[in-house]
Amino acid sequence: MAQILAPSVQWQLRTKQTSMSASSITPKMWSSLLLKQSSKVAVKSSAKFRVLALKSDGSTINRMEELLNLDVTPYTDKIIAEYIWIGGSGIDLRSKSRTISKPVEHPSELPKWNYDGSSTGQAPGEDSEVILYPQAIFKDPFRGGNNILVICDAYTPAGEPIPTNKRHRAAEIFSNKKVVDEIPWYGIEQEYTLLQTNVKWPLGWPVGAYPGPQGPYYCGVGADKSFGRDISDAHYKACLYAGINISGTNGEVMPGQWEYQVGPSVGIEAGDHIWCSRYILERITEQAGVVLTLDPKPIEGDWNGAGCHTNYSTKSMREEGGFDVIKKAILNLSLRHNEHISAYGEGNERRLTGKHETASINTFSWGVANRGCSIRVGRDTEKQGKGYLEDRRPASNMDPYVVTSLLAETTLLWEPTLEAEALAAQKLSLKV
Question: Where's the GS catalytic domain (predicted)?
Fold first, then answer.
């Protein structure tokens, strides 16, 4: 459950004659001291203004919380825009705030901005300016009102996308007419693990030890089976408030691990929504004093890893005869297995072992209702002859811009040779 922020300044009460602890002063004595405004009492802080913090019976009235919840809308048209971008590791999120003169409805209304790329591992110190281009807007669930979260991508001053800007290439693929005409849908299942702050051990686990084996935790209920539900629920509501297309959430197989689903989303929107949802989750865990990890195998041994299964369909897959289109897509995916694996997240080899509901990283496979395959096709899709496929290979730390655009590129734009296609079809027992 999120913790109320405590004041960072330690207030001290000093008198010329005696000193006593704040806890030894009764409420009546506090009232007397405050009313008299005696010269014997001085409240000191590093700030240039004076704040009187009332203490009574061990509790604190936290004035900071009132300011954090302050609604400035009746007093000004100005809003706060939180510019969010991806840092040098390709997975870390960064953000900073600026004041905008009035509410906006579209990213084009927002100014470009810059940041120090040498401090994020994205530019040299002698030429450190990186330019942020606003690309997507979401409502800010933390500040409320007309304030916004802004998903940005990053460019050099000359207008070239920097290496960690994967959105730029994804936008090019999604703007291709062949892709646009197929209206690609994505449903992304983001798994994550919550860790205790000081020991970096999963939430709910005994420190230095292990809980009972997996089995009762998946979608479990109870204090001995569910750890971090308040964080999951807070994140769910915050995403709905922000306008993220979140469609559900559940406790996962490993205790302290959770999942939420975003979609169906069309094209580049899928990546924007996942990145913003990750940012909101980071902020919530920050407030709760819990560490978020997207590591694909946070605990070695007989424990499930964390993935980001990506459900995908095109217009042709969703129409009559779509199952044949799905099988053709699977054939293409099999021929580019290595390219996809190399782009599906760091450390994924520790997760894709052929155990714990995963396929081997070295072997491509597909099956109906088989969660141990690279690509799973649902029973309903087989029965109806149309629908979607699920790519179970992406790791929890994958870049959604990369994964979604690569799926579209491989299945809609890339064409294998006839020889390779025939061999792959025979190997996978596909008739297309």
Answer: 163-432
CB 217 within 8 Å of CB 253: yes
Tokens of 373: 């395959």
Q: What angle do CA 159, 160, 165 make, to 5 degrees?
A: 115
Q: So what's the pLDDT on residue 61?
A: 55
| Pick among 3.10.20.70, 3.40.630.30, 3.40.190.10, 3.40.640.10: CATH of 79-164 | 3.10.20.70
User: For residue 256, what are its two tokens?
Assistant: 């302290």
Residue 260 bridge partners (DSSP): 190, 249
3-state secondary structure of 371: coil
Say how many C-beta atoms besides its own lie within 10 A of residue 313's C-beta. Answer: 25
- Tell me how far CA of residue 212 lies from CA of 97, 157, 255, in angstroms: 44, 54, 9
Q: Cα–Cα distances in Å, from 37 out to 28, 87, 352?
A: 14, 50, 68
| Residue reference for tokens 């800010």 | 140
424 vs 229, 316, 333, 421, CA distance in Å?
Answer: 44, 22, 10, 5
The list of the chain residues with pLDDT below 70 reads: 1-61, 431-432
**Domain boundaries along the sequence of the chain:** 13-68, 79-164, 177-428
- Give the closest residue to 253 by CA, choosing from 279, 284, 215, 197: 215
d(CA 432, CA 430): 6
pTM: 0.84
**What's the CATH number of domain 177-428, 3.30.590.10, 3.30.310.10, 3.40.50.720, 3.30.2170.10?**
3.30.590.10
Strands 366-368 and 375-377: parallel
Residue 84 CA, chain-centre distance (Å), reads: 12
Q: Which of 413, 405, 360, 370 shows the shortest CA–CA distance to 390?
A: 370
Q: What is the DSSP string of 11-45?
A: --EE-SS----GGGS-HHHHHHHHHHT-TT-EE--
Report the chain's terminal Cα–Cα distance, integer Å.
52
